[in-house]
Amino acid sequence: MSRGDERLAFEDVLPRIAELAERLAEHDDNDVSETAVEMLDWIDVFHANGVGRIVEMIRDWRGEILLESVAADPVAGALLAAYGLGDSADLDAARVSVQAALAEVRPYLHSHGGDMEVVNIEDGVVRLKLHGSCDGCTASDATIIEQVEAAMKEHWVDFRRIEVEEMTADPHPPPVVGSVTTGLQIKKRADD
Questions:
Q1: What are the tens digits of pLDDT across the range 40-92?
Q2: How far apart (Å, rounded) are the C-alpha atoms in residues 146 and 154?
Q3: Which of 120, 135, 159, 191 has its CA 20 to 30 A from that of 15?
Q4: CB 171 within 8 A of CB 136
Q5: Residue 116 CB contacts under 8 Å (≥ 6 apart), including other chains
Q6: Which CATH number is 90-164 given?
Q7: pTM over 0.70, yes/no
Q8: Burial of 55 from C-beta contacts in 10 A (0-12 / 13-18 / 19+)
Q9: Every domain of the chain and the residues it spans
Q10: E strands in the chain
């Protein structure tokens, strides 16, 4: 577009962006290449979260009919589809990805007498409920949620964030080695 009056048909825009991104990523100057790739990653994060919030607001206002119309539009629908938003067609794939991510962190949760369940998956947002010693744990944000978010990002390309249901147990510190209220015993690691 910066070269005079060149215009591309809409269906040619994404392939052109991909071509330009690939050229920049393969640039001879490694600093230019790394900077370009990082910039594209941040633009992607910005767009995914911005469009995701718009979709959430539409749903909050009971705008499913509007959302269906937007998804059917060739331009706006392509933007939603690029970020896995607004369409439940990929919900099964999202569920598989989320469960694979949780399978990675469950052994850690179980070793501390806790667990979590998926309450809802929609538009890149995973809503979780904590159980056992995780419910009410004052360290859950700093430990468990960070681990779950990292696993989600690794397994699900359209992941945006985690929301945790309000805890029902009274706040309490994390379990210490050797004592878990569920009867499980946490053994000391060899390096402790």
A1: 888 888 888 888 888 888 877 877 778 788 888 888 888 888 877 766 557 77
A2: 12
A3: 159
A4: yes
A5: 102, 109, 128, 129, 130, 131, 134, 144, 148
A6: 3.30.300.130
A7: no
A8: buried
A9: 10-86, 90-164
A10: 114-122, 125-132, 161-164
